[in-house]
Amino acid sequence: MYSFFGEVIEISTIKDVALLAGVSPATVSRVITQKGNIASETKARVLSAMEQIQYVPVHSQANDKSGTIGFSIARDPKDMLDNVFFSNVLCGISDAVKKFDYNVQFSLYYNIEELIEKSIDLFKKKQVNGFVFTSIFSSDKDLLLKSMQESHVPFVMIGSSLNQNVFSVHNDNIRDSYMATKYLLDKGYRKILFLTPDLKQDFTYDRIHGYQRAIEESEETDFTNIIYCDNEELDITKALDKAIEEEVSFDAIITMEPIASLITLKYCQNKKMRVPEDVGILTFNNVTYLDKVAPSITGLNLNPSALGTEAVQLLSELMDSKPPAWVHKSVTLPSEIIERQSTNRSTVSFI
Q1: DSSP letters of 89-129?
Q2: What is the rounded CA–CA span in Å between residue 137 and residue 125?
Q3: Residue 111 sits in a domain of what CATH number?
Q4: Which residues, other chains included, contact 312 with Cβ-Cβ below 8 Å and sequence gap of 6+?
Q5: Domain that holds residue 30
């Protein structure tokens, strides 16, 4: 309730509508935003409840809402230049906010402390309604979540947050890595290198686990070799040179980023290794330009645009809760392998 010049005015909330209509707040949100399949009878009850208590949807309360969602990342800018995953997520967010009549503000910070400080400040000044965060290092995640929740800032994480009471949307990286490794095993590859950067993010652990589990379950091989290196050409070249010098035999390579797969392909070609006959190459984060090289490179499609779209949907539900409901809710999206020439041994003529 609010008091203006001695007159008490009661402001209705989405929870009041849900209680009167006998539905969940999420259902009310979907009716307001016209998202999802809602039974006509349920929709009628919700609209009737809104009219009875004179509820004005949060997106229409222009005096205390700026209509802006923040998409914020704490990463070195150079890490972003070659990574189209983030731009695809941003495209998904941009498409989704149009349906809610919101704008999107993209912010890139050098460290987690700056991201936290700026995000809380933007929210308190009512310049941003809520945030979508992604690519948060494992060591920074607890600090971020604690700070946002203490300041009652609505936010959604893109990435697994299994042990926290937050809204999140993510890929199942254990499942995806297992699927990619098993795919290569089914193609006849037996000595698969796993090329990955450091362990600063949770998904790296999960992908390693999926890779190892697929090998452990295989009756054809017990070979595992995890090589840690950055996605720079010099680092990848040195890492593969070292493997060859140490007489590590391999017939397939999994990379974490498309740019790393291109560098790996170039390396194999310089070393006269035939792809896919001698070495198969598969990368996480499928992008269209993988189809433009020869041989084209097989990619694991993580649906980054859909991650962005789903994150906005979750955030809209959270912003309609006053204060934000800190409960665990996660959405896991499917992934698929886009097969191309770099692993397709069956279409290659052996000489």
Answers
A1: HHHHHHHHHHHTT-EEEEEEESSHHHHHHHHHHHHHTTS-S
A2: 27
A3: 3.40.50.2300
A4: 69, 92, 93, 96, 97, 100, 102, 132
A5: 2-56
Q: Is residue 256 part of a domain?
A: yes
pTM of the predicted model as reported, rounded to 2 decimal places: 0.77
Three-class DSSP category at 329: strand
- Residue with structure tokens 């006998």? 22
298: closest CA among 277, 283, 276? Answer: 283
For the cut 90, the answer to whether the pLDDT of residue 188 exceeds it is yes
Cis upstream peptide for 154 (omega within 30°): no
The number of domains in the chain is: 3
Tell me 180's DSSP state. Answer: H
3-state secondary structure string, 206-224? HHHHHHHHHHHHCCCCCCC
267 and 118 in a common domain: no
Residues 190 and 163 in one domain: no
Cβ-count burial 288-321 (b if 16+ within 10 Å, e if not): eebeeeebbbbbbbbbbbbbbbbbbbbbbbbbbb
**Do 190 and 140 fall into the same domain?**
no
The pLDDT tens digits of the residues spanning 300-312 come to 999 999 999 999 9
Residues 6+ apart with CB under 8 A from 241: none
Q: Is the pLDDT of residue 6 over 90?
A: no
Report the CATH number at residue 33.
1.10.260.40
Taking the C-alpha atoms of residue 193 and residue 242, their distance in angstroms, rounded to an integer, is: 13
Q: Are 154 and 324 in contact (CB under 8 A)?
A: yes
Q: What are the backbone angles phi and psi of residue 323, rounded to the nearest 5°?
A: -75, 175
Residue 196 sits in the same domain as residue 297: yes
- Looking at the structure, do residues 74 and 88 belong to the same domain, yes or no? yes
What distance in Å separates the CA atoms of residue 42 and residue 202, rounded to the nearest whole number? 40
Q: Give me the helix-helix angle, 304-319 and 25-33, nearest 10°.
A: 110
